Write the structure tokens for this entry.
Amino acid sequence: MGRVYNFSAGPAVLPEEVLKEAAAEMLDYQGSGMSVMEMSHRSKVYDDIIKTAEADLRELMGIPENYEVLFLQGGAWTQFSAIPMNLMKNGVADYIVTGQWAKKAWQEAQKYGKAVKVASSEDETFSYIPDCSDLPIDDDADYVYICENNTIYGTKFWNLPNTKGKDLVADVSSCFLSEPVDVNKYAVIYGGVQKNIGPAGVTIVIIRKDLIRDDLAEYVPTMLKYKTQADAGSLFNTPPCYGIYICGKVFKWLKANGGLAAMKTRNEEKAKILYDFLDQSDMFKGTVRKEDRSLMNVPFITGNDELDAKFVAESKAAGLENLKGHRSVGGMRASIYNAMPKAGVEKLVEFMTEFEKANK
């Protein structure tokens, strides 16, 4: 069996060129006589890998000098704690809850201070992004938090919230590097890489340097202090070496393919193919308000659980993998990250068209 079209939400599809390159270097990385999996993170050769990865990421995103780039572990979940621990000076933060991950981040922050839910779309199963143009932002809020692209529900902030001058923190796990971004609009941008950038196990945190503090509460673990990680250049302890190496290859792949502007165009084209089909279909329906649709994650339903289950089973047999929706939404979900080729989306729509005909 050849490679399938993998619509998984994460760990997700990676560029085939990157996988082939990694395979070719598996036993001997550039004449070092060893695999990247085996080499010391303190070696010159690995130092080059992580420094090049950071330089390429800075170039791709246009990350200004006054921001630190950290390659960490522990997933977004760990950042749900690290962010309030490091950023809460006044002990207050405002959260916009547009999905399960934003909700979990808000709940976690309550352990460390006053976390205020200033807006939410839970009333309609997170199927839209609330109006964030005039929110009741707390005067003493240390930051305003969003999950910019909601993997499970398929929504995206196309306009960033009006934070009324407060620092914006964004979890971008599932839209990382899918489009150009103005880093200056954020205090912290972070995400797990296992959706759009690399293998599970790496979390990237991009943080404005003035927010990296030394005067933290005594209970803040050494490993969760941004200062610990920044001072050590992400090498305080053994980092996820191989994962960072693959991320670095993906950054090179993105640069070779026109950068983030080209990715956005590609992603818009792919999403349009699928959304156009959903909008005219009698059987399949998208679950998200049109203006809030994500380019990365597309949930859809037939409205009939049995038909949904049949679709998932038959799509798998057709080489279209991981289309089952998240248990909290049901139905189906196609994650069409950067590395998903247009041909994969076309094949999905072709299959959906045939399925609709056969199951009228």
Q: What stands out?
A: The chain has a mean pLDDT of 97. The two ends are 31 Å apart (CA to CA). Residues 19 and 60 are 21 Å apart (CA to CA).
